[in-house]
C-alpha cells in the first residue's frame, strides 16, 4: 500500500452497511477515498465500476474489489491487527461470539429498517401494510433485545467494539431515513450510546448525507 | 457438550441460509436436532422459541442461542478446528479472502433470489415487475461471476470450502422454489458443481422439503 493508491470505498453513507465500514476505517486510521455513487440514482456511473450494483464495495490498493460489509470488516480487522491495533471484533472465543451476537441483533434491526425503506420506494398503490408491520415488529424486537443487553457505555466488555458501531449505524439510518419509525424515548440506553458515538470523530467524519 | 443435549437448528431447509448451516454440520459430523418450523406458517410455535422470527437459529448445548448464518458458520468452524478438522473457511490471509469473496457472490445471488420469492408472496395486485426485474439482473450477474471463476471441481483451491456449500445451497433454492428463474444451461460449470454436491452425503441428509 502506498499513499498514492489508497483504499476506495464505494457507496453512499445513507446505507448503514457502507457507513459502518467507513466508521471502522476512521477508527483504525486507514486512509480511503469515498466514491459517493448510489445504486439507484447513479446507475450509469455505477455499472462499469460495480456491475453487481452491490454496496459497500471496497477496492484495495492492489485493485482487488471486496463485497459484503461483514467481509470488508473482517479484512480491515486483519489489517488493523497487522498494524498492532486491537481489532473491533475479537479474533476468537467467547468474546468474539458475544460481539457477533449483539451485531446479529443490530443487523436484524438494520436489515428490517432497510426493507421498510425499500417498501417506501414502491409506487404508492403497491405498498403492503401487512409486510411493513411484520418488518416493524422484527426491527423493534431486535432493538428491544439490544436495549436489554446494554449496561454501561458500550455493548460488550466496556470498550468500543463492532457491535457498537453496527448498532449506531443502524440507529442513525432509522433516525435519518425513517424518523417516524424511531419511537423516541423507547430505547433510552441505545439513544445515549448513539448520541455519544455520533458525536465522536469517527462518526462525524462520515456524515449520513455524503 | 454431551450426547443428551445436542445442538438444535431451527428453520426449514427451504431457506438456503438454514440449509448451508445444516450441510456444514453434516460435513463436520456435528450431531444436531432439526426443529422444522416456518417463520411464516408456524408463528405461534415460533414466537416463544424465537421472538425475533429469524432463522437459522442455533441453540448450543449450553442453551445459548445464535443468530445469523455467517456467525453460526464462524462458530462451527471454530468448533471443527478444536476437533482437529480443517475449517471450511480458512482462518486468515489471502485464502480466507478468496473463499469469502466467492461466498459474497453466492450470498448476493441467494439474497436476490429470496427477495424474488418474497415478491411472489405478496398479493398479486401488489407485485412490482420493475423490482423483480432488478433483482433478477443482480442474481444473474452474481451467478455469471461465479460461473466465470469456477475452474475445476471446486471454487477455491481444489477442495470443498464454504464457497461451494453456500453456492450450491443458493442454486438448490432457486431450482426448488423458483425453477422458472433458473436458466437451464446458462451456467454449465455451476450446474455440474450443484449436481455433484447435491448427490453427496452431506446434502442428501438435508433435503429441501424438511
UniProtKB/TrEMBL annotation, chains A, B:
Pfam families documented for this protein: GST_C_2, GST_N_3
Transferase as UniProt keyword: yes
Coiled coil: none
InterPro entries in UniProt: Glutathione-S-Trfase_C_sf, Glutathione_S-Trfase, Glutathione_S-Trfase_N, Thioredoxin-like_sf
Tree of life domain: Bacteria
Keywords: Transferase
GO molecular function, one term: transferase activity
Segments forming domain GST N-terminal: 9-83
The keyword Transferase appears for this protein: yes
Protein's name in the database: Glutathione S-transferase-like protein
Amino acid at each position: 500500500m502506498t499513499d498514492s493508491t489508497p483504499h476506495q470505498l464505494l457507496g453512499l453513507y445513507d446505507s448503514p452497511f457502507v457507513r459502518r465500514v467507513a466508521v471502522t476505517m476512521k477508527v483504525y486510521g486507514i486512509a480511503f477515498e469515498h466514491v459517493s455513487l448510489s445504486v439507484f440514482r447513479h446507475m450509469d456511473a455505477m455499472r462499469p465500476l460495480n456491475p453487481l450494483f452491490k454496496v459497500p464495495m471496497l477496492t484495495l490498493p492492489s485493485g482487488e474489489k471486496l463485497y459484503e460489509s461483514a467481509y470488508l470488516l473482517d479484512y480491515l480487522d486483519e489489517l488493523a491487527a497487522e498494524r498492532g491495533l486491537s481489532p473491533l471484533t475479537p479474533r476468537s472465543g467467547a468474546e468474539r461470539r458475544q460481539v457477533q451476537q449483539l451485531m446479529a441483533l443490530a443487523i436484524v434491526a438494520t436489515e428490517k429498517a432497510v426493507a421498510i425503506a425499500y417498501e417506501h420506494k414502491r409506487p404508492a398503490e403497491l405498498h403492503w401494510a401487512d409486510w411493513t408491520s411484520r418488518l416493524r415488529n422484527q426491527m423493534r424486537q431486535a432493538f428491544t433485545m439490544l436495549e436489554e443487553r446494554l449496561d454501561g457505555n458500550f455493548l460488550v466488555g466496556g470498550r468500543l467494539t463492532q457491535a457498537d458501531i453496527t448498532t449506531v449505524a443502524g440507529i442513525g439510518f432509522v433516525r435519518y431515513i425513517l424518523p417516524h419509525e424511531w419511537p423516541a424515548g423507547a430505547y433510552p440506553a441505545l439513544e445515549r450510546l448513539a448520541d455519544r458515538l455520533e458525536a465522536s470523530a469517527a462518526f462525524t467524519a462520515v456524515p449520513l448525507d455524503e
